[in-house]
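Input/output pair, single chain:
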Amino acid sequence: MTATLAPRKPLTAADRCDRCGAAAVVRAVLSGGGELLFCGHHAAEHSARLTEMDAELQDSRQEAREV
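Output:
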């Protein structure tokens, strides 16, 4: 069976960090389903553990640099 990733939804100004309520810049899509949103500070704090958990990290800061 092949897993299909959901299309990436861009983060908006209404998307807030699940830890502190600041503007979200990273979406962590969890392998078991669900997602978490993080500001830059909390994304940096939790990214290593999320990577260990095979979460897909969608970083809107990276997309802005590529434009």
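The helical segments are 40-52, 60-66. The mean pLDDT is 88.
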